[in-house]
């Protein structure tokens, strides 16, 4: 059985064929041409890439089911003709700060109660209000609001739909009632008509239409599942569950786990979304400028990332220099989205070695704070799966080993979102009875033997303690939002 997975990312479109055993047997990708505004994308360029890459692939493989994933929290209004009214505003578009502040001032507690997430600029609700103010003409023409993956599914099937995970990332989906929050939408004068129908992620949402066949050469009538946002498929492909954390050290740093409980005391501290298992929720701790901090420091110092890592490995173990990776806001658990990065504990003996190590450790310290909050409220987990830079760079791997108590695992493939999408496809056509069975069959993890840290173990924990002391003073009197 062959599953075609389409992944519309922030920087590139990926298309892959995955077997029922989780083996990626064909893979193509293409960078998305940048717009003048880097936080916007032209959806037609997604389709161009999907068409080109998929046509290459279906010549080589017979496709049994299609699964689509993509970046979350975008704003993409579609007109009555089925075409975008504007470029998509991506998750990292923060022009809606004004709308976000208005929501915070007037509805912060109500939003937390209904949606379990704060009204930050990244969520579509803030973007929608800003769009209504800036482009009233286009707003009135809006027929449906879609996410990137949903637009691709629409062009393949003719079906205007979304899945429960992307719906839960909009601040329009009531997490308790598991439906669009019509009461709150009425309060904000938002029509229910602009929101698509909601499906479970592994549910077949439609079949390839004649137009979809012409676009991709996928056989007409091939089933397509609703899919899920890339945060969810990446977590799924990394074997996240209620006994496992997944730590991602990418452009943003992320710590994820699932739980059957919707814990109200985490609202406003840790993000929460619907998960592909109907009875579970996905919890997310994040630091927006995770791996981006390394990019920023590289540009600032004119050193390559490899040179920075090499210097960090030679840093003085006794130095207390720490970095607050808040150049794009704190993320969780402090939820302060002002730019407030900085270095603390500077000693006159510190040089680029110590600064380099601090920049690398800072995002890990931030995720460790989220880890402590999540563990306190949700309980401990047995495993931690490292992904992205955390699975590649020995210095980062070692820091994670020394700070986190769970057993450490690394997946065999870096394309976790592709595997997660394939799992949804396999379950959707009943190759596996449920998500858990598909994960066991399609994901391969390698356990990492922890090395004894010795003095270095103690020293990194002391630096983390110093870091916590600083954040404690910075945010102790801050309100939840």
Written overview of the protein:
This protein has 481 residues and is of the alpha+beta class. The protein has a domain of 230 residues: Nucleotidyltransferase, domain 5 (2-Layer Sandwich). It has a seven-stranded mixed beta sheet. Strands 3-2-1-5-15 form a five-stranded mixed beta sheet, sandwiched between helices. The chain has a two-stranded antiparallel ribbon with strand order 4-7. Helix 9 crosses helix 15. The longest helix is centred in the C-terminal third of the chain and has 27 residues. The radius of gyration is 22 Å and the shape is globular.
Strand-helix topology:
Blueprint: E1 2-8, E2 12-19, E3 24-31, E4 40-41, H1 43-58, E5 65-70, E6 76-78, E7 88-89, H2 97-115, H3 124-134, H4 136-141, E8 144-146, H5 148-157, E9 161-163, H6 164-167, E10 173-174, E11 179-180, H7 182-187, E12 197-199, E13 204-207, H8 210-216, E14 223-225, E15 228-229, H9 230-237, E16 244-249, E17 253-259, E18 271-274, E19 281-287, H10 292-301, H11 305-313, E20 322-324, E21 342-344, H12 352-378, E22 383-388, H13 389-392, H14 394-403, E23 407-411, H15 416-428, H16 435-442, E24 445-448, H17 454-475
Helix pairs in contact: 1-5, 2-3, 9-15, 11-12, 12-14, 15-16
Short description:
The protein contains 17 helices and 24 strands. It is α+β, with helices and mostly antiparallel strands.
The major pleated sheet works out as: 7 strands, mixed
Helix content: 25-40%
Computed structural class: alpha+beta
Strand percentage: 15-25%
| CATH A-level architecture of the domain at 2-231 | 2-Layer Sandwich
Q: What is the CATH homologous superfamily assignment of the domain at 2-231?
A: ATPase, nucleotide binding domain
Taking the alpha carbons of the first and last residues, their distance comes to 47 Å
Trace the largest sheet across and list its strands. 18-19-17-16-22-23-24
Global outline:
globular
**Unreliable spans:** none
CATH fold naming of the domain at 2-231: Nucleotidyltransferase, domain 5
What is the chains' assembly state? single chain
């Amino acid at each position: 059985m062959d599953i075609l997975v389409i992944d519309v990312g922030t920087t590139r479109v990926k298309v892959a064929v995955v077997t029922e055993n989780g083996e990626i047997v064909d893979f193509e990708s293409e960078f998305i041409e940048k717009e003048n505004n880097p936080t916007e994308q032209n959806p037609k360029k997604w389709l161009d890439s999907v068409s080109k890459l998929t046509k290459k692939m279906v010549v080589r493989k017979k496709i049994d089911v299609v699964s689509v994933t993509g970046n979350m929290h975008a704003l993409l209004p579609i007109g009555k003709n089925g075409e975008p009214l504007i470029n998509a505003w991506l998750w990292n578009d923060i022009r809606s700060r004004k709308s976000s502040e208005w929501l915070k001032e007037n509805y912060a507690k109500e939003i937390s109660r209904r949606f379990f997430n704060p009204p930050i600029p990244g969520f579509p609700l803030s973007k929608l209000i800003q769009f209504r103010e800036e482009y009233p003409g286009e707003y009135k023409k809006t027929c449906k609001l879609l996410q990137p993956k949903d637009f691709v599914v629409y062009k393949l099937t003719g079906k205007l739909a979304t899945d429960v995970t992307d719906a839960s990332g909009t601040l329009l989906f009531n997490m308790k009632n598991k439906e669009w929050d019509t009461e709150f939408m009425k309060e904000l004068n938002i029509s229910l008509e602009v929101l698509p129908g909601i499906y479970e992620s592994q549910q077949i949402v439609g079949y390839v239409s004649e137009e979809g066949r012409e676009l991709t050469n996928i056989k007409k009538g091939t089933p397509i599942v609703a899919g899920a946002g890339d945060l969810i498929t990446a977590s799924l492909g990394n074997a996240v569950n209620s006994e496992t954390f997944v730590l991602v050290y990418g452009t943003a740093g992320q710590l994820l786990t699932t739980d059957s409980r919707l814990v109200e005391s985490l609202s406003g501290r840790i993000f929460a979304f619907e998960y592909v298992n109907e009875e579970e929720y996905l919890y997310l701790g994040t630091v927006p400028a995770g791996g981006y901090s390394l990019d920023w420091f590289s540009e600032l110092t004119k050193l390559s990332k490899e040179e920075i890592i090499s210097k960090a490995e030679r840093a003085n173990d006794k130095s207390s220099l720490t970095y607050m990776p808040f150049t794009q806001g704190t993320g969780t658990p402090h939820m302060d989205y002002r730019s407030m990065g900085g270095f603390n504990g500077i000693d006159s003996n510190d040089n680029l070695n110590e600064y380099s190590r601090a920049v690398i450790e800072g995002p890990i310290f931030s995720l460790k704070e989220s880890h402590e909050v999540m563990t306190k409220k949700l309980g401990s987990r047995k495993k931690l799966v490292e992904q992205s830079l955390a699975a590649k760079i020995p210095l980062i791997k070692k820091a994670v080993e020394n700070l986190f108590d769970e057993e450490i695992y690394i997946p065999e493939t870096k394309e976790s979102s592709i595997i997660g999408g394939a799992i949804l496809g396999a379950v959707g056509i009943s190759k596996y009875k449920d998500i858990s069975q598909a994960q066991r069959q399609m994901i391969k993890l390698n356990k990492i033997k922890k090395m004894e840290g010795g003095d270095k173990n103690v020293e990194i924990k002391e630096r983390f303690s110093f870091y916590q002391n600083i954040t404690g003073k910075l945010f102790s009197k801050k309100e939840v939002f």
